[in-house]
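Re: the request from the purification team.
They wanted to know what the chain is likely to look like in 3D before they choose a buffer screen. I agreed to run a prediction and write the result into the notebook, where they can find it.
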Amino acid sequence: MEKIFHGQAEFFWGAETPDDLPPAALPEITFAGRSNVGKSSLINALLGRKHLVRTSSTPGQTRALNFFNVAETLVVVDMPGYGYAKASKADQKTWQHLLRSYLRGRVPLRLACVLVDARHGVKASDEEMLELLDEAAVPTRLVLTKADDMPQRDIDMLIMKTAEVAKKHPACHPVPILTSSRDNTGIDELRLAIAETLGLTR
């Protein structure tokens, strides 16, 4: 597992429409979440990199599905952030069409990680994404980000409330993963969850 997540990783494809999707070759893990949830930072931490996935403080910067080959073993897919209020209706419609087409029709997609800002909890747009993943029957993990900004006394309640949401969705694993890309909280747990999904721990 260490060789995979600390091995070679590189961007190889960007898709802005369903027709742009790359040929399906390796198992895929996709990361979804509201704009500015810390998706790029988490993927960088997961793969032991600092600048593989470009981060931005401006929401709505990711406009495409970005594909990263990881050690010729799996593909990590960075999805456009959703829930960005200032995005135009046309942009929102384009992104929604791309996301739905990808999630419903991508054969090698093995796991979707839905990222939720620990400071704000699950929002309506996250619930919509979870419902879409239920419909597509894509195995899902809820991943809480930015845990280092949470007081310790609030974390147990946060995990309990997030687990209650997860249990309402048949495609979702009942146990959320608490993470921080700043201090690497939960990163090994997330790596293990991905490896187990792909059968790489046997």
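For the purification team: The chain is about 35% helix and 20% strand.
Please add any questions underneath this entry.
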